[in-house]
Write a structure and sequence with these properties.
heterodimer; A: 428 residues; alpha/beta; Rossmann fold; Coagulation Factor XIII, Chain A, domain 1; seven-stranded mixed sheet; six-stranded mixed sheet; 26% helix; globular; B: 302 residues; mainly alpha; 11 helices
């Protein structure tokens, strides 16, 4: 590299960018017409104020990405992460500030978008790669590589509508990563397919980065940010709350997410809570250590208890409790669901205050953010008495476990000589 | 403070390098792009050149998909003119409608005119249909937006090729003499397609915003047919005649028909005026389309 100035390898710079949106759809369409008119008449300029019903989807956001660097955007729903990606891709115009993009931007968000179901895989590869900005010659050169990467084999000449979901995703991914963009924009999906294919995806992305591609990665998942990114930006409600090394930014994000306690606004839970006079309600849900002291956070492998504190307004015949733990991401995947009815049978709860302790001999969750939601039910038909709003909690990890799916407790032992089990047993 | 200045420095130096090495650098900001017309036209021209290959791919893709899933294939191009010609001929023979003398045998006249009219309507609806079907892609990937429009123009022309089979068969059947001016007819047909595209491109971004636009377009093209000499010859005097003659489609459609058959162009000035206006108008609508699309896409969702 011959560049001497500090910005010579800058792939992207976002400078005090603002974007306003309107939640009221009809009004937003009207504003759209007005914006088009002022753009055409040459009257559009950076704006400092909002119109009725508008909010700042992004406000004075600045960001720099160098070649070969990966920058992560983290934040809760509606923080403006995807809006920033769309601005970077040049799909929408900023309302303030400026973005300077050097080189070709390609999204990894477009898995399968643009495929025509009637056409064959091979035909679709040519269409998608042309959309991503490659010439016929370049596609010809990479065609075999794409087919090979996607592992679709004989299905190449079959219409894409006959493909399984996995095959479509693999083909879409193969196209996206072979487009060789200067800036790759990734919205949540870093890899697709089974474990083996995912490893291949990660390898391919790493190779692209070594070749100088810059990444902008949006994720809810702190682990993805930690393992992939060189720096991170924490966005919330359109503003930058923290920016810098991923470790400190993610820590700040997790702190605030966990600190908010019952943070996820959940329509269903709120509605369920409105069930007044059902006979019982949950007053609090929290983690404790075996000695009964409240825990700020769990630690992988350490014992813990979940305390469900509530009040029964009558004697409850056959109470059962369900504990639902999900990943604290958008549409967070279910991690596990504990049913007291399956484990311990129904419980009889007398009128008054009660605490139900769910004993966890060790925490099997790996480091990260999770949400827990407790439902209290009665009878054989599981009549819902009450449901707590999802509560976000944090699990602290241990060294070397960041790639694990769950925390596996273990012990090691070496057996020699007399300690060895008798012959025959060992052979098997 | 220090961060802001670092950002500014970074941006400036990237400009320098961008200028020296010619790396493609794009700046997006909140200023109207019409304020820098030279820059805007440079971008538009670059994208137009860049979109050729993509437009070709889109056209091939859409045509293949269209014909692969249709057992009747190209027949769909000439069934509508046949039906309309049959209907109009029956109505005319039964004296239900009373049309004046036509240059060609009446069924041939209607068939040929309908094929031309249909081509115009396809070109008119093409851009907003193309934008609607590419919405998911438009909302996710930045590619030259001209490509989907160009692809549609190509598709309309290819479909007209299909209709040519019908027209050729009809010429043979009715023994219609062809003059050398038929060689000029494609220019008029292209003009017809461009006129439709001009209007179609103009409304396409607004069709993304409001469904009313495509509905109104549907309604308008149905009504428009009655104001165009498709099932009747150009009327003489009277209010209706004036309206038909003010209809910009009239001189273009009539000229295309006349060039292919009689060789006598009845309204060369009308044709020239509409052609020039179309070409100039296309430049304007192209700019409008490009500038308006981001605002439409912003509200189209992804």
């Amino acid at each position: 590299m011959t560049g001497t100035s500090p910005g010579s390898d800058l792939a992207l710079s976002v400078d005090l960018v603002s974007k306003r949106f309107c939640r009221d759809f009809r009004r937003s369409l009207r504003y759209g017409l007005r914006d088009i008119a002022s753009e055409l008449l040459g009257r559009r300029r950076p704006v400092e104020s909002l119109r009725t019903g508008e909010f700042w989807a992004l406000r004075d956001v600045s960001l720099e990405v160098r070649r070969g660097e990966a920058v992560g955007l983290i934040g809760p729903n509606g923080a403006g992460k995807t809006t920033l990606l769309r601005l970077i891709s040049g799909l929408i115009n900023p309302d303030g500030g400026s973005l300077t993009v050097r080189g070709r931007v390609a999204p990894l968000i477009s898995l399968g978008v643009g495929f025509n179901p009637v056409l064959t895989g091979a035909e679709n590869i040519f269409v998608i790669m042309t959309i991503l900005g490659l010439t016929k010659k370049e596609i010809d050169r990479r065609f075999a590589e794409i087919v090979d990467f996607a592992e679709i084999g004989d299905a190449l000449q079959a219409p894409v509508q006959t493909y399984s979901w996995g095959m479509t995703a693999r083909l879409g991914f193969a196209c996206a990563v072979h487009a060789a963009p200067d800036i790759l924009v990734i919205d949540e999906v870093l890899a697709v397919g089974d474990t083996r294919f995912r490893v291949k995806c990660y390898r391919r992305l790493a190779a692209m980065r070594d070749a100088g591609a810059a990444f902008v990665l949006v994720s809810h998942n702190p682990l993805a940010i930690l393992s992939v990114c060189d720096s991170a930006t924490y966005l919330s409600a359109g503003r930058v709350l923290a920016q810098g090394p991923p470790r400190s930014v993610v820590a700040r994000y997790e702190e605030e997410m966990a600190g908010n306690g019952a943070a996820i606004p959940d329509g269903a839970a709120a509605a369920a809570r409105a069930v007044e006079g059902s006979g019982a309600r949950i007053e609090s849900v929290g983690f404790r250590d075996p000695a009964g002291n409240a825990l700020e956070r769990l630690v992988s492998g350490e014992p813990a208890e979940l305390w469900v504190r509530g009040r029964a307004e009558r004697t409850l015949e056959a109470v059962s409790v369900a504990v639902l733990v999900r990943e604290a991401t958008e549409g967070g995947a279910l991690v596990f669901e504990l049913q007291s009815r399956d484990d311990a049978g129904p419980m009889e709860v007398p009128m008054g205050e009660f605490v139900i302790r769910v004993k966890l001999p060790y925490c099997g969750l790996n480091a990260g953010l999770y949400s827990v939601q407790v439902s209290l039910m009665e009878g054989h038909f599981l009549w819902m008495l009450d449901q707590s709003p999802p509560r976000i909690f944090r699990v602290g990890g241990r060294e070397g476990t960041s790639q694990w799916l769950f925390y596996q407790p273990r012990g090691w032992e070496l057996l020699t000589g007399l300690d060895l089990p008798r012959a025959g047993k060992l052979d098997r | 403070m220090s961060k802001a200045s670092a950002l500014a420095a970074g941006r400036d130096s990237s400009r320098e390098r961008g200028a020296s090495s010619g790396a493609a650098e794009v700046v997006y900001n909140a200023e109207s792009r019409v304020r820098r017309p030279r820059e805007l036209f440079a971008v538009l021209c670059r994208d137009l050149v860049a979109s050729r290959e993509l437009a070709w791919r889109f056209m091939v893709r859409d045509l293949r998909a269209q014909y692969r899933q249709a057992a009747l294939g190209v027949a769909w191009a000439f069934v509508p003119p046949l039906l309309l010609a049959a209907g109009a001929t029956l109505a005319s023979r039964a004296q239900v409608i009373n049309v004046g003398a036509t240059d060609l045998p009446y069924p041939a006249y209607v068939m040929f005119s309908t094929a031309l009219w249909q081509t115009f309507v396809e070109a008119l609806h093409g851009p907003s249909q193309a934008v609607a079907s590419a919405k998911a892609m438009l909302a996710r990937i930045a590619f030259p937006r001209e490509a989907i429009v160009l692809a549609k123009v190509g598709e309309v022309l290819v479909n007209f090729g299909g209709k040519l089979l019908l027209i050729a068969a009809m010429f043979l059947w009715f023994g219609i003499p062809v003059t050398w001016t038929a060689l000029l007819a494609p220019v008029a047909v292209l003009e017809l397609v461009l006129l439709g595209t001009l209007l179609g491109v103009l409304v396409a971004p607004f069709a993304v915003l409001y469904q009313d636009v495509s509905r109104a377009l549907m309604l308008a093209s149905g009504f428009w047919l009655f104001l165009t000499p498709v099932v009747y010859p150009v009327p003489g005097a009277g209010a209706f005649g004036t309206v038909v003659r003010l209809n910009p489609v009239t001189p273009v459609l009539v000229t295309a028909r006349e060039l292919a058959t009689t060789g006598v162009v009845s309204d060369p000035w009308g044709f020239t005026a509409v052609s020039v206006a179309t070409l100039l108008g296309l430049l304007v609508t192209w700019v409008v389309f490009r500038l308006a699309m981001p605002f439409a896409i912003e509200r189209a969702g992804s």
